[in-house]
Design a protein that fits this description.
This protein is α+β, with helices and mostly antiparallel strands. Among the domains are: 110 residues, Alpha-Beta Plaits; 94 residues, Chitinase A, domain 3 (Roll). Helix content is 45%, strand content 17%. The strands form three sheets. Strands 6, 7, 8, 9 and 10 form a five-stranded antiparallel sheet that branches. A hairpin with a 4-residue loop joins β1 and β2. α5 packs across α8, α11 crosses α14 and α12 packs antiparallel against α13. The longest helix is centred in the middle third of the chain and has 35 residues. The radius of gyration is 32 Å and the shape is extended. The chain starts with a strand and ends in a 30-residue tail after the last helix.
Length: 468
């Protein structure tokens, strides 16, 4: 095997690999076994013909192509090992010639991360304060939720519960045909179309009404956008909330119940304080990470960024078209070329990679890890508070991928917690050197972008394995 190496300025190394007959020979037996199981040689049972006959019958070129992916992957891995390269993801391989078999592998190198003087960074979390007005707002919501719906003789008002028969049509096409449906009209209720609630206001029980609504131009259903919808509605019943007093009786009926309204208020204050403290802590940790990222230097290979853009493009397509999204269909729907959408996604891809790499470097520098027992504890916390769905959750977390994802989440949380301590001047464990931090393999990535796809050799000269 002949290898020539070209180093680029952006952490990509190009390996030009050429194989001779001796290099290829070990792989031909694999090809013969695969082909013989589906090719008939006259005079022999399938799979029983001698090798020389099979090779003469199908040709050496066909044998090589049969295992081309495997040959390229194995020899690329071998070349990377021989060249002592530390890679970050799978290489991108392009077939150059079939005779002699040669190909080019672009190998993304391990990113270079310098966290700078992050230990000198100093920040303080924002103080948490819960005012009486916020407590009262929660108590009012509790009061509203506890109130029963009672029939009312007056006209429909906003926030009433109205039982309706509804018929709606657009250009003769039925878009609503509901009987006895409950509906709560509010000033800004957008359903079924914006403005529907306003037409109900003032209607009385057993009253019918016809009206027309102009559907917005940006309505999600393009077949209806900008058109008029003709409604015929009938009010069957009107109910309103009868709010209880904010007293001990109300408190006793809330959840498990409290002995007094004072107890309920104290619990509301406690919950609000804890919520605000969590939000403030999360915001403080994210701000700390943002400051570390600002002071850090991160160098990433061009190929790594391109792969991350691939993943973001796949994510966007799946978000709009489902799991088996077709990229070309997605691009057609958004009215943009692949190049345009990739350039739009590039800043986000770089930001996501930078965040991940800084988090990973912090974990390595601080010696932060996640053990199996921590994953088990997290799963137990999830399942024990999930009631009847606890067992199904436990099964969902039993797969290796689910446990790995959970481990990444725990690790990210621990990193951010430690960073929060550092920026407040709290001392930590014995430091790990930056050199050691750079040597951690890709499999230990946390809060990570998706893994790159496996190496696949192109099946024709000049073909490339990139998704583009």
């Amino acid at each position: 095997m002949k290898i020539t190496k070209e180093e680029t300025s952006q952490l990509d190394v190009v390996l030009n690999i050429e194989l001779d007959s001796e290099d290829i020979e070990p792989y031909l037996e694999r090809s013969l076994k695969r082909i013989s199981s589906r090719v008939d040689i006259p005079g022999f049972r399938r799979g029983k013909a001698p090798r020389y006959l099979m090779e003469n019958y199908v040709g050496r070129d066909a044998l090589i192509r049969e295992s081309l992916d495997y040959i390229v992957q194995q020899t690329t891995d071998k070349a990377i090992t021989e060249e002592n390269l530390t890679i970050f993801g799978e290489p991108d391989v392009e077939l150059v010639e079939m005779e002699p078999l040669s190909f080019k592998a672009i190998v993304p190198q391990e990113p270079v991360v310098d966290l700078g003087n992050f230990r000198d960074l100093r920040l303080e979390p924002e103080p948490v304060d819960v005012i009486e007005e916020q407590v009262n707002e929660v108590l009012e919501r509790i009061r509203y939720d506890a109130a029963p719906w009672e029939p009312v003789d007056g006209p429909v008002k906003f926030d009433n519960l109205v039982t309706l028969d509804v018929d709606g049509s657009v250009e003769g096409r039925s878009v609503a045909d509901d009987r006895g449906v409950d509906f709560v009209p509010t000033q800004d209720n957008p359903y079924p179309f914006p403005g529907f609630s306003i037409h109900l206001e003032g209607m009385k029980g057993d009253q019918s009404k016809e009206f027309t609504i102009q559907i917005p131009e940006d309505f999600q259903d393009e077949t209806l956008a900008g058109k008029e919808c003709r409604f015929n509605v009938k009010v069957l019943a009107i109910k309103e909330k009868v709010l209880p007093e904010l007293d001990d009786e109300l408190a006793k009926g809330v959840g498990a119940g409290y002995d007094t309204f004072k107890d309920l208020r104290a619990k509301v204050l406690q919950d609000l304080t804890e919520q605000k403290e969590r939000a403030a802590r999360n915001a403080f940790q994210e701000k700390s990470l943002e400051e570390v990222i600002k002071g850090a230097s991160v160098e990433v290979s061009y190929l790594t960024i391109e792969r991350e853009i691939d993943h973001l493009l796949e994510d966007q397509a799946q978000a709009t078209q489902g799991r088996n999204a077709d990229i070309e269909t997605y691009l057609s729907n958004v009215g943009k070329s692949r190049e345009e959408i990739r350039e739009e996604l590039r800043p986000g891809a770089q930001e996501r990679l930078t965040r991940f790499l800084v988090l990973r470097s912090l974990a390595q520098t601080e010696g932060i890890e996640v053990g199996p027992e921590e994953i088990d504890t997290e799963i137990e916390n999830f399942t024990s508070s999930s009631g009847e769905s606890g067992e199904s959750l436990r099964k969902a977390f039993s797969s290796e991928s689910a446990r790995s994802s959970l481990a990444n989440s725990i690790l990210t949380r621990k990193i951010l917690e430690r960073l929060g301590e550092i920026v407040q001047g709290e001392s930590g464990e014995e430091e790990t050197s930056q050199e050691e931090a750079q040597a951690t393999p890709i499999e230990e990535r946390t809060d990570q972008p998706k893994e790159t796809k496996g190496t696949k050799a192109a099946q024709s000269k000049g073909g490339s394995t990139s998704d583009d």
